[in-house]
């Protein structure tokens, strides 16, 4: 019967919000295209998305594996990866993640899926899938440009020949305009390759496992970066399917509001604030789930937003991180009287914001972002120009894509950014007059339209999902299943 014929895919996201969110979206996309989908996670991660799934995709099953935090020397409730936990804890987190291999294989034996889609941070899943004679797809939640930079620096090691961490060097083998990097702009992952640390070794295996896998799923759109997509697939010889933007699978308000976690603000009061504003007048400021700014830096951002004269929604993670529990309390990080002066003009969200909902609102006209790829792509999809403020990981690569290749970003430079620089960048992005802002708005609008077309029937991402499913089914038949 029909149930029997459904291809069963097991989706296994790495335990960090920036990885879980797009993979849950991807799980929904496969479910909506007729696949049987099982998501694998840990007990403390499951509640972050299971309610959302039950509401709109009740057919998706969720299986949990105990996370061996304590066995790896982590606090027992540490099931979410956070770079700010320090290198020692990061190492332990990867040790714990590696320990999931045997329980994961037990689960494969029980559930017998036809295919595994596992995060690129789980290199060993390629071997696990091979033991069961099934393909492992890699979820690489990034774009082709960043993947090319990682791959080319891995192959050519240009950073081994520079004098200091901030010396710029050109990336060899890249088509189009030359792109310069410095070591301090490279993700630790790329810098560590060939290194002797545990994490360095994991990432060597990540690259190896990826090349032995069935192929990668990229959360991007071919038309955004055809040059780099072609380089990645044709010259570097990688099998890859771009299926983004995956966020667009969330259609209803509820689904978009509760992507990742329940919001710290009632989505309706957030929408009320935005509904009262003129189209494209509000700046949205958010630095993702991991970036931690110091109190003095937060104060500079506040002062910068105030002096820009623009209305804003600003997401601040401070209290959730430092044990404040989100309950008001200590506001010494804000300039004196800030919230009273900004009443009705600026909305501060302490904790988790319904970002997908906010970015798509007509009142929002620009996005100040840390350039995490999910946020970046959500910004592009919403047709927004951006102020780019990368902090870590491959965020500097994404910034270059926005500012140098796509032409829709204004870079904020420096480790410490003063209020003047914040106000200046926001002013340039939101300017009603002048060529620069108009040109960025035009390009961003066009990219947003391309993104929406890509996931519709006939679009490139939609077609790639069909092609991938078709290939998996053909392979399955060939193997006599
Ligand atoms: N996000 C959100 N609300 C927040 C902060 C983040 O919904 O308050 C979502 C955001 O929409 C994105 C993800 O969390 O999908 C963050 O991923 P990204 O790659 O941008 O950054 P990371 O947190 O991994 O650095």
From TrEMBL:
<protein>
    <recommendedName>
        <fullName>Glycosyltransferase</fullName>
        <ecNumber>2.4.1.-</ecNumber>
    </recommendedName>
</protein>
<dbReference type="InterPro" id="IPR035595">
    <property type="entry name" value="UDP_glycos_trans_CS"/>
</dbReference>
<dbReference type="Pfam" id="PF00201">
    <property type="entry name" value="UDPGT"/>
</dbReference>
<keyword id="KW-0808">Transferase</keyword>
<comment type="similarity">
    <text>Belongs to the UDP-glycosyltransferase family.</text>
</comment>
<comment type="pathway">
    <text>Pigment biosynthesis; anthocyanin biosynthesis.</text>
</comment>
<dbReference type="InterPro" id="IPR002213">
    <property type="entry name" value="UDP_glucos_trans"/>
</dbReference>
<keyword id="KW-0328">Glycosyltransferase</keyword>
<dbReference type="GO" id="GO:0047213">
    <property type="term" value="F:anthocyanidin 3-O-glucosyltransferase activity"/>
</dbReference>
